[in-house]
Amino acid sequence: MSNFLKKDVSCFIKRWSIAPKLRKPRFHAALVAVDNRLYLCGGATYPGNDVDCDVTHSVYAIDTYVPGSGSWQYETDMLISRHEAGVAVTGRFYPDVPS
Asked: CB neighbours of 34 closer than 8 A, spacing ≥ 6?
């Protein structure tokens, strides 16, 4: 199972390149691009990043990456943790956070 839990990111902006590593390793996350920013929503991970564990936990976090910034940043949490979710954008990104 350890092959699924990664911090590594490949990015395509006119060509493939290696992007900065994620803050926390995860898999089955949703990714969307809005206004020159990538939003990584949810995903799954192992408790304590223990890849030998058979149980996964859904992630609440939304992380963002601005190409050229050099790192992923924590943006906010979703109200409900999710993995294997879909994401679509109709002009603006609205994470499901209370106002």
From this structure: 89, 92, 93
38 vs 78: CA distance, rounded Å: 16
Q: Domain locations in the chain?
A: 9-82
- Predicted TM-score (pTM) of this structure: 0.77
Cross-strand partners of 6: 26
Write the DSSP symbol of residue 41.
E
| The amino acid at 78 | M
Mean pLDDT over residues 33-46, rounded? 88
Give the Cα separation of 5 and 40 in Å (integer).
15
Side chain identity at residue 62, one-letter code: I
